[in-house]
Specification:
alpha+beta; 10 strands
């Protein structure tokens, strides 16, 4: 009887024992919100830094590309002709102003010499037999490929050493491959100095509008 009562009490006590609950979710699921928040907190600054670095790299690469591209384009720009801008004083090889009287004494007829004229191009001043200057100067840049054309004193004409183009006494083309005559510029004496200015009028050698405008 006593044994039976002890067994009954043990059974009843067991029924009231609380079994601890077990969390069946994986540990990775429990820590996921914290990891996601950490990733979200670091995302925006990373993108900002990347954007800034991309802009810096792009700007650094653009400078040499533009510089090289500008030089490449400039290579295909044809040489300047006469004309353009206001009149300017001709310069000699040393960069000094050209004085008409001294120039005539140093370069008597039929010789011709170069000065720096409009747009920085080389120009010929033409001395007459009466020891005065013609009222125009001739641009020495060949109209074929831009070589400087020398004056041939023996033949009294300009002969290009690059491809054989020839121009007469006044710079009119008489033999190709140059397609056009040499450009002209007006010449005036101002306070004893030689001043060159653009020639916008008809080319008196050909009767055509000036191609160098």
């Amino acid at each position: 009887m006593r044994s039976t009562m002890l067994a009954t009490i043990a059974t009843v006590a067991t029924a009231f024992v609380v079994t601890p609950s077990v969390n069946t979710r994986p540990a990775s699921q429990v820590r996921a919100p914290a990891l996601s928040m950490a990733a979200a907190d670091g995302f925006v600054p990373d993108m900002q830094r990347r954007s800034i670095m991309n802009l810096v790299l792009l700007g650094g690469a653009a400078v040499p590309v533009l510089w090289l591209g500008g030089g490449f384009v400039y290579f295909f720009v044809p040489p300047g002709g006469g004309g353009g801008g206001a009149g300017l004083t001709a310069k000699d090889a040393l960069g000094n102003d050209v004085l008409a009287n001294s120039w005539i004494e140093k370069n008597p007829y039929p010789g011709r010499a170069l000065v720096q004229g409009l747009k920085g191009d080389a120009h010929y001043l033409i001395v007459k037999e009466d020891k005065t200057l013609y009222d125009f100067a001739i641009n020495a840049v060949c109209t074929h490929l831009g070589c400087v054309v020398p004056w041939n004193r023996a033949q009294l004409k300009y002969i290009c050493p690059c491809h054989g183009s020839q121009y007469d006494f006044n710079g009119k083309v008489i033999r190709g491959p140059a397609p056009l005559s040499l450009a002209l510029a007006h010449l005036n004496e101002v306070d004893g100095k030689v001043v060159l200015s653009p020639w916008p009028e008809t080319d008196f050698r050909t009767g055509t509008p000036p191609w160098w405008k």
